[in-house]
From TrEMBL:
It comes from Xylophilus rhododendri. Residues 94-301 form the ABC transmembrane type-1 domain. This is ABC transporter permease subunit. The lineage of its organism: Bacteria, Pseudomonadati, Pseudomonadota, Betaproteobacteria, Burkholderiales. The keyword Transcription regulation does not apply. The chain crosses the membrane at residues 12-29, 100-121, 130-154, 174-194, 232-258, 278-304.
Length: 311
């Protein structure tokens, strides 16, 4: 419980930092939110009236205090473009983003771990070199390049749709429309996870308990899965947690490339249109998602290695 409390306290501190930094960045942005709301035909008097209505004529510290107070009451404000609640706008886009992340993780993590174990077991052979070549390519190639390549080849040939979301994940149209975005986003996980799995399994394969298991006649499959991979989980889980958190950043690029209606695409659109309340809400939700993922990984890490949580 102490470990959980410390992690929650750290997460809340980080979240407060994100709120303050996001608020300050919006304050120094060149666009005037009141002018954006007034539109191109807005007069100086109308802009001044809107500034008063939005509280923009108050000191920055007061504005920050009021913003935090609204957040404490789960009020993210209203979009300056659509005049709809920001929470409603985010609620309509968070589902596709979660779908995309789940679809990316569900195939890439098991495949990366399997490739890492195979490379460690066949260390120094052509299989090992091939897996390392694939992992280096996965680490080196940017996500937008992989997406554009898939659009040009698979999408251009008409094999799979590459624009938009055709339906929920549990429908055939939804599965087809999410295939290319999920392959693009998941491909960035294969390289680092396969490499760390290979390194961790190689270390455990040389341990005394593995040699003892072999001396007792245990099969290679049992040695790999029960003795080597089981004791190599800590670095793998740590890296997977960090990489899944980084998927939030990759999802922004992937959603833009494939016109996927997620939070990342909405945030980019809000920033370019000067809809700062919506942009602030998207940044805040993304930060909360990242903190939740890291908190879950910390708890899993403590469950796998209770000694680490006591340090």
């Amino acid at each position: 419980m102490t470990h959980l409390f410390n992690r929650l306290l750290t997460s809340l501190t980080v979240l407060m930092g994100v709120i303050v930094i996001g608020f300050v960045l919006i304050q120094v942005a060149p666009a005037d939110p009141a002018a954006v709301r007034a539109g191109a035909s807005g007069t100086a008097e109308e802009i001044a009236e809107i500034r008063t209505e939005m509280g923009l004529d108050r000191p920055v510290a007061v504005q920050l205090g009021l913003y935090v107070w609204r957040l404490a009451h789960l009020d993210l404000g209203r979009s300056m473009i659509s005049s709809q609640p920001v929470s409603g706008e985010i609620a309509s886009t968070i589902g596709p983003t979660v779908e995309l992340m789940l679809a990316s993780v569900v195939w890439s993590i098991p495949l990366a771990i399997a490739l890492g174990v195979l490379a460690a077991y066949r260390r120094g052979r052509w299989v090992d070199r091939l897996v390392m070549l694939v992992s280096v390519c996965g680490v080196s190639l940017p996500v937008f390049w992989i997406g554009m390549l898939l659009i040009q080849t698979v999408g251009g040939a008409g094999w799979l749709p590459y624009l938009g979301r055709s339906g929920p994940l549990w429908t055939l149209d939804g599965l087809l429309s999410i295939a290319l975005p999920a392959i693009t986003l998941g491909s960035v996980l294969i390289g680092p996870v396969a490499r760390i799995t290979r390194t961790a399994v190689i270390e455990t394969l040389g341990a005394d308990y593995v040699r003892t298991a072999r001396a007792k006649g245990a099969g290679e499959g049992r040695i790999l899965l029960r003795h080597a991979l089981r004791n190599a989980w800590l670095p793998i889980v740590t890296l997977v947690g960090l990489q899944v958190g980084n998927l939030l950043g990759g999802a922004v690029v992937t959603e833009q490339i494939f016109s996927w209606p997620g939070v990342g695409r909405m945030a980019v659109s809000a920033i370019f249109s000067g809809d700062y309340p919506l942009a602030q809400g998207a940044i805040l939700v993304t930060a909360v998602g990242f903190l939740i993922i890291n908190l879950a990984v910390d708890m899993l890490y403590a469950a796998l290695d209770p000694r680490g949580s006591k340090q």
